[in-house]
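Hi P.,

Sorry for the delay on this. The queue was packed all week, but I finally got your sequence through. Input first:
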Amino acid sequence: MTEINALVLRETGAPMTVERIRLRDVGSSDVRVRIDATGVCHSDLSLARGVLAQELPAVLGHEACGTVLEAGADVADLAVGDRVILLWITPCGDCVHCGRGEAHLCVNGSSRGAEPYAVDAEGNPVYAGLTVGSFAEQTVVPAAAAVKVPDDISSADAALLGCAVTTGVGAVTKTARVTPGSSVLVVGLGGVGLAAIQGAKLAGAGTVIAVDRNVAKAAYATKLGADHFVPADDTTKKAVRALTGGEGVDYAFDCVGSGRTIRDAWGMTRRGGTACVVGVGGKDDQVSFSALELFHFARTLVGCVAGSLDAAHDLPRYFDDVRAGRLDLAAMVTGHGGLPDIEDALTAMAAGQGVRTLVVPA
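Then the structure:
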């Protein structure tokens, strides 16, 4: 078993601390990966604060790029030294959803998170948050959860392609399928929200409106393609309708995941438009609609899991978008640090500050 440093969550709501843990041995179809860069995602905040359930103790982190240090005997397409993006949903290829071409909905894709992947200094089991556990120097994952990164794509860019970018861009281009010339609203300008703005521009949207409670994020949104920024307050709905001829937008993307923001995004969507829920909310946070409004407005409400990602087909396209400058991932990174800095990054995120902190664990 390999001994490493990792940031361990032992109690929801309590600070995480760097500890020595021992990774499980590499199985025949596994790879051991050094984490070269990992992003701090809002889902990590939700896990750390108990909004999303997580077996404890755990090592969080799921948006990452790393280098293969060891490969199992049956791993044929990866070798020591390869750089890889780590997937937090690993398609099994055999379930009903995989058979339908819905790899992002794989029935078995997240099941390995229920099994410990390491032990602590006392020999107690440690679990990998969202199956990856990238807030650590190294991790062990199935080879199917590691996608090789081309030499001309930086580890920093590749890390963001592990979650934020593929989720935000995919929500627009794959889940909702925004059409050219459409009006698009993005609520919540974290990493996923800013990626959704870039996705809207890729899709040829005519007008892109960005909404956030932190007005300092207006500059990021504008740089990445938003035509308008509207502060999140009591006047937001009126302002969005004024920008859309009183109708509302064709497509609204809620990148927060709260009952309130989902309801607001729905309300700012035009009659016959589409509201897409991208952010991950809590199971007890309810959203209600009247039977009459569902009929009358004829809107479509759609959920989005991981940007409907099919890694084998989609990541090569995203690599091309990065190469061509159609995706600017560096502009989304507002902080850097090591494992001890992750707690501060989560605190800032909870306050609506910053966009993406990129961490180098070792």
